[in-house]
Amino acid sequence: MMPEGGLRRRQHSSLRAWDDVGMLKGLSVQTVLQAGIPLVRNISELPQSDYGRGGLSHITIAGSVLHGMKEVEIWLQTFSPGSRTPIHRHSCEEVFVVLKGSGTIFLASNSHEKQPGKPQEYPIFSNSTFHIPMNDVHQVWNTNENEDLQVLVVISRPPVKVFIYEDWSMPHTAAKLKFPYYWDEDCFYSPKDEL
Amino acid sequence: MMPEGGLRRRQHSSLRAWDDVGMLKGLSVQTVLQAGIPLVRNISELPQSDYGRGGLSHITIAGSVLHGMKEVEIWLQTFSPGSRTPIHRHSCEEVFVVLKGSGTIFLASNSHEKQPGKPQEYPIFSNSTFHIPMNDVHQVWNTNENEDLQVLVVISRPPVKVFIYEDWSMPHTAAKLKFPYYWDEDCFYSPKDEL
């Protein structure tokens, strides 16, 4: 089911990190590495991490590196109260389904200007959906102080190539490309120095 | 946010059908038709129908016809006990996230044969995920007699072009293309005869 080479070897340090945070419950690392990924996977047993972003829990439900996806990728992300994505854009389609909690989507649709400018704000809530027009600069923010915000995220053209802005007045041309992105980076094969 | 022409006019008969089954709660037909689709949408207010398929409830969360999606499309589907998809294939990626219930995915991966042949069976369950390799013949079946099966479905390359098989021994070349598919068909613009 999985294209050959779709699962890259992970560095030992990454594997240890998985175990450290109690991931891979019931699913041995050797199973993943040697026998491939099962067709039907229990989402609660999939590896999750904050990938260095405070307040985030990210799970790749179906991804280009781990599962050989070519055209779509799906993430499950949980934002603790107050946490948020960077201000960013990407040239792929993106759809959100809000599973739990509430928050705000900040969206600057004026891509004909030199910089994003002041974004519009839209409240998002449990059982809502929204999509981000391609290349529009946006930020998802858990503005609810009392509850986690959990979203299912679908993107096209994986792996994602993210341009990050320091603020809404930064010129589009100054936004910094982050690629591979945190969760891909962690999965890409890095050769081990045997010497 | 929505490309011009992304929302086609619906036939009056379709609109009446929406109302008949109690859909469009709180969202007037005129709002949808004249003012476009809001960025953030309440999924429980989106139109749903069985599209003539007994036991099915289908909601297009983000679609090519209604929302101008070009690369991904997302559906929320609920199968009553015993109901199922046709045996079918499509040349797009497809990922399922099981939100509620349980069932069975039947999958014939031998696309080098003349017909699908006996499929493999995989149990699916709440909070599981699986994806269908492109062009593999498959069928999702709510084999749980006591509970609805609810899945979130993501496809690439919308709108979906489905080839339907009468049974697992039907040659691939005899499978019948259904396009537009039920839910797209209902949304595509049909000119009204004014005479």
TrEMBL record, chains A, B:
Keyword set includes Membrane: no
Sugar attachment sites: 127
Main localization category: endoplasmic reticulum
Highest taxon of the lineage: Eukaryota
Cellular compartments per GO CC: endoplasmic reticulum lumen
UniProt-recorded name of the protein: Auxin-binding protein
Cellular localisation: Endoplasmic reticulum lumen
Binding site for Zn(2+): 88, 90, 94, 138
Keyword RNA-binding: no
CDD domains: cupin_ABP1
Gene3D superfamilies referenced in this protein's UniProt entry, alphabetically: Jelly Rolls
BP-aspect Gene Ontology terms: auxin-activated signaling pathway; cytokinesis by cell plate formation; positive regulation of cell division; positive regulation of cell size; positive regulation of DNA endoreduplication; unidimensional cell growth
Biological source species: Macleaya cordata
UniProt KW keywords: Auxin signaling pathway, Disulfide bond, Endoplasmic reticulum, Glycoprotein, Metal-binding, Receptor, Signal, Zinc
GO molecular function: auxin binding; metal ion binding
Annotated PANTHER family: AUXIN-BINDING PROTEIN 1
InterPro entries from the UniProt entry: Auxin-bd, RmlC-like_jellyroll, RmlC_Cupin_sf
